[in-house]
Write a structure and sequence with these properties.
about 575 residues, rod-shaped, about 5% helix, Immunoglobulin-like, about 50% strand, eight-stranded mixed β-sheet, eight-stranded antiparallel beta barrel, mainly beta
């Protein structure tokens, strides 16, 4: 910094009539020996060689422009001073004047602050920084106060810049010896330990690889620099820790990488569960834009023959309509291949990219791709037992086998969804092919009794992967009656003893009906001239007693035994009594 001589702040007394009429005590308080005053002053400030920046042997001089405004702040009392000081003329030396009001004490330190109106409009030139991007302060001590003349003597101010000036030389990472001319340049970040954003923007009048940029003080900040090249490509460089101190001059080379982007993958449409892994999306792509046109970079390699690598992360929707939280870049689960899923559901796919020497990494995508795998409409397969079924007293399967579910050519009967739940197949053996009648739903598809037609209905309670299947009649089957041929054998044949008063002259015989499955199915009839004199009764264990109940010589008769019932074909056998 330069040594600045002492100067005098001259104030012109501007008092209202009411104030002039004040008491002598009040007037006495304005005398110099009071060392304090609170009033309005017209303050004049002379500045010599101000707004200078010197470092590394170079000096950046900034000249005042007529009308430049300076704010005044009392550092000692920590009070803002009302009013502004304005430059009366331009140049390296000028005088500021203006009406200000506040409390002033001998020995107070005043801070004069200047901030250019055009600070944000940087063009990247040294002249632009000097004329448009100045932010400087000067601290001066009040040496003497004259309350009557309204003059204050202070030190001469030396304005010191409150930002660094950085000369950026921009080169191309793909060819580091090649300068990179840019048409636009910016940097952005967040102040460490805060949520305060930081940003600079430079728009040079013509494409150039050399930019002078004014940057307020920052320390240990991660800054992302981006630029639009004259070649139409976007470039980027992330610097993890940057510090620029106030009032210093820096030279920095930015070896910028082309700014690659990730083109989001396209969700597969009309996906349905198949029991096999399904690709959720088409490939994402690495790309950049050249003059607003996309250029795919998937196969672009750096000098080490390395490509950029896109990774995918999949999360399944848990609460309907709610997007899961995004994964972090380091979370386990990222894969570099196209993600697949088996089970039905709603999935979200995020991407990120690992760059190479030429291209910066691309962080986790802010908006995931939504993909739906719908439940499948499975086919229910069931067919009637192809064997001829004949009543045998046991339950027999009416279907060739248990019903199955298929999707395309894939058998999914035993497939379970993501909750480890399988589909449930139920059967109803009905006597009607119009609606299930005469039974109940269960796991059996068998019947025992002979019948011309049984109807097997089937329904499916699906799971997370397969839709329900309403009841449907899948097969009809007959169980034939059994042919059972009965025969007779005579066990006894005798007359009642002589003198039997109850059965005088009568006789009886016991016959066995052989091959009879159930005696309750036997019917018997007696025919012939003497039929009225005969009776037939069951004796147990397939034995029937034929008894002649008249006296004297009898009449002949024929007893017919008939096996008949819903499960058997009719079979008859006769016995002749004489």
């Amino acid at each position: 910094m330069k040594t600045i001589n002492t100067y005098i702040l001259a104030g012109t007394l501007l008092l209202a009539g009411a104030f002039l009429a004040g008491c002598s005590k009040a007037t006495d308080s304005l005398k110099p020996e009071a060392a304090q005053t609170s009033n309005e002053f017209t303050l004049k400030v002379r500045s010599i060689n101000t707004k200078a920046l010197a470092d590394l042997g170079e000096t950046l001089g900034s000249e005042w422009t007529q009308g430049d405004s300076v704010r005044v702040y009392n550092v000692t009392t920590e009070q803002n001073i009302e009013g502004w000081l304005f430059a009366e003329a331009g140049g390296t030396t000028t005088t500021f004047s203006g009406t200000v009001a506040g409390n002033f004490n001998q020995g107070d330190v005043l801070r004069l602050s200047f901030l250019s109106d055009n600070y944000a409009q940087q063009d990247g030139t040294l002249e632009g920084v000097a004329s448009q991007c100045d932010y400087a302060v000067a601290d001066v001590e009040i040496l003497e106060i004259d309350p009557e003349a309204k003059t204050i003597s202070t030190e001469v101010a030396e304005f010191v810049k409150q930002q660094a000036v950085v000369k950026f030389n921009i080169t191309n990472r793909k060819n580091p010896v090649e300068d990179l001319d840019v048409k636009a340049f910016n940097g952005f970040g967040v102040l460490p330990g805060t949520e305060t954003p930081f940003g600079i923007r430079v728009n040079p009048e013509a494409a150039t690889n050399e930019l002078y940029v004014a940057i307020p003080y920052i320390q240990d900040m991660k800054i992302t620099f981006e630029a639009l090249g004259a070649d139409g490509y976007y470039y980027r460089l992330i610097v993890p820790s940057v510090t620029f101190e106030d009032g210093l001059y820096y030279r920095r080379t930015l070896n910028m990488k082309r700014k690659a982007l990730v083109k989001a993958p396209v969700a597969k449409s009309n996906l349905k569960y198949t029991s096999q892994p399904l690709a959720l999306v088409d490939s994402a792509h690495v790309y950049w834009t050249v003059n607003n046109q996309e250029v795919i970079l998937d196969d672009d390699k750096d000098y080490q023959e390395q490509k950029c690598v896109i990774s995918y992360f999949v999360k399944k929707e848990v609460t309907a309509g709610t997007t899961p939280t995004a994964p972090t870049a380091t979370e386990n689960g990222w894969v570099s291949s196209i993600p697949t899923q088996i089970h039905a559901g709603t999935y979200y796919v995020w991407t990120k990219m690992t760059g190479n020497y030429d291209y910066e990494d691309v962080g986790v995508s802010t908006t995931p791709v939504k993909v739906v795998i719908a439940k499948a409409d499975a086919t229910l397969n069931a067919s009637a037992n192809s064997s001829t079924l004949t009543y045998n007293g046991n339950a027999q399967n009416l279907l060739a086998s248990a019903a199955t579910l298929t999707i395309g050519t894939n058998n999914v009967t035993s497939a379970k969804d993501a909750s480890n739940t399988g589909c449930t197949i139920q059967y109803y053996v009905s006597t009607s092919g119009t609606t299930p009648t005469g039974g109940s739903w269960g796991s059996s598809y068998s019947a025992t009794n002979a019948r011309d037609s049984y109807y097997v209905w089937v329904k499916v309670t699906g799971n997370g992967d397969i839709k329900d299947i309403a009841q449907v009649m899948k097969a009809s089957k007959q169980i034939n009656k059994k042919t059972q041929t009965i025969s007779l054998s005579t066990n006894t044949y005798s007359f009642w003893p002589q003198g039997d008063t109850q059965h005088p002259g009568a006789y009886y015989c016991d016959v066995t009906v052989n091959n009879c499955p159930d005696d309750s199915l036997i019917s018997k009839t007696v025919t012939g001239a003497g039929s009225s004199n005969y009776s037939v009764s069951y004796r147990g264990n397939h034995v029937w007693r034929i008894q002649y109940n008249a006296q004297g010589g009898g009449y002949s008769a024929t007893v017919t035994f008939k096996l008949e019932g819903s499960n058997y074909n009719t079979s008859t056998v006769t016995f002749t009594c004489t």
